[in-house]
Amino acid sequence: MSLFSQMNVLCPNCGKTQNIAGVGSVNADRRPDLRAAIMDDSFQMMICGDCGTAFRLEPLFNYLEVDKGLWIAAMPGREMPEYIEVEDRAMGVFEISYGERAPAAAKAIGKDLKPRVTFGWPGVKEKLTIDELGLDDVIVEKLKLELMRRLPEVPLGPGTELRLMGGGESALSFAWVQTVGEAQEQGFSVDRALYDEIAGNEAGWAKIHARLTDGPFVDMQKLYMGEGRAA
Ligand SMILES: [Zn+2]
After folding, report:
1. What spacing in Å lies between the alpha carbon of 52 and ligand 1's midpoint?
2. Residue 81 carries which DSSP code?
3. How far is ligand 1, taken at its centre, from the CA of residue 16, in Å?
4. SS3 of 66, please?
5. pLDDT tens track for 156-191
6. How far, in Å, is the centroid of ligand 1 from the Cα of 12?
7. What is the pLDDT of residues 34-66, one digit of tens each?
8. Domain named CpXC: which ranges (predicted)?
């Protein structure tokens, strides 16, 4: 079931209190329209009843799509620096809902679910894009790391991230985006053969693979933030 609850937020423009329906969980098997809204950037967009300004709530919900094996704790972008804590909390929720500590029926569903944590709207949207293209998210993150080495100019920094935007048979397109404001900067495309090459070189990427998958936040940005989990 998808759950929404009434909540009060302040309009970022006029500061007046708005009572809006914030999402707590998305069940995309039953509500494919909600998945579509995440993909077209309209999900949780609100219009202020007082001044008419459009603004977007931060993501803070669990996304479930059993059919695709997707379970995502979609978190606000500003919480990314505390990702280890957030990962642990998300895994606690997953364990009770679909993991080891879940009732038998839920546990049976859970064995086909891949738990993930994302921060910001571009992060959760990217996981759905990866699913749509039939790609593996761990390999996509390795590909980004490879691109960091190859690109002449790398604007990666706090609040700016590299995200997969789409793709086809022969190329994948990426763009630098703002984690919070979602503004998109330069985009470029990459030969899909590079993805296949990385997918075929498991041994060469083993060490990075271990880092990327040491928790449900499967994102190369974790390699740039602090010491990571103790080895
Ligand atoms: Zn307003």
Report:
1. 6
2. G
3. 6
4. helix
5. 777 889 999 999 989 999 999 988 877 777 789 999
6. 7
7. 999 999 999 999 999 999 999 999 999 999 999
8. 10-144
